[in-house]
UniProtKB/TrEMBL annotation:
Domain of life: Bacteria
Keyword Transcription regulation: no
The organism's taxonomic lineage, starting at the top: Bacteria, Pseudomonadati, Bacteroidota, Flavobacteriia, Flavobacteriales
Organism whose genome encodes this protein: Epilithonimonas bovis DSM 19482
SUPFAM superfamilies (alphabetical): Globin-like
Keywords: Heme, Iron, Metal-binding, Transport
Coiled-coil residue spans: none
A Pfam cross-reference name: Bac_globin
Protein name listed in UniProt: Hemoglobin
């Protein structure tokens, strides 16, 4: 049985919710979300829905500076390559377990690029 691609806001919301459900409990990087950033998922998830909808569906609904939000977190606890790798592993697993197709693969490619850029920038300010 084939899975569907990411084609709607509802698909994006499902993916992001599934991902955050895993990542906040992750033994390697969950603490960034719960202890360091202390994110409120009720506030954070709608921003992530908009971010990924903008990237994957081309709807310009995201406004913000994602890099700027992460520098203060990096100041408290260094975001290292192993942390970005785990973030990517969980993201890729969540995508592949729920979706397949062009946008699903794009979600993984874009996440990889975001992680590379963010890791590079975080290293340069340490």
């Amino acid at each position: 049985m084939s899975m569907k691609d990411i084609t709607s806001r509802e698909d994006v919301e499902f993916l992001v919710q599934a991902f955050y459900g895993r990542i906040v409990k992750d033994d390697l990087i969950g603490f960034f979300f719960t202890d360091v950033a202390k994110i409120d998922l009720n506030l954070h998830l709608p921003k992530m829905y908009n971010f990924w909808e903008s990237i994957l569906l081309g709807n310009p609904v995201y406004e913000g500076q994602p890099m700027a939000k992460h520098f203060p977190i990096n100041d408290i606890a260094a975001m290292e390559e192993k942390h970005f790798n785990r973030w990517l592993q969980v993201w890729e697993r969540t995508v592949h377990e729920n979706f397949e197709g062009h946008n699903a693969e794009n979600a993984i490619t874009r996440a990889l690029n975001i992680a590379r850029i963010m890791h590079h920038k975080m290293k340069s300010v340490r």
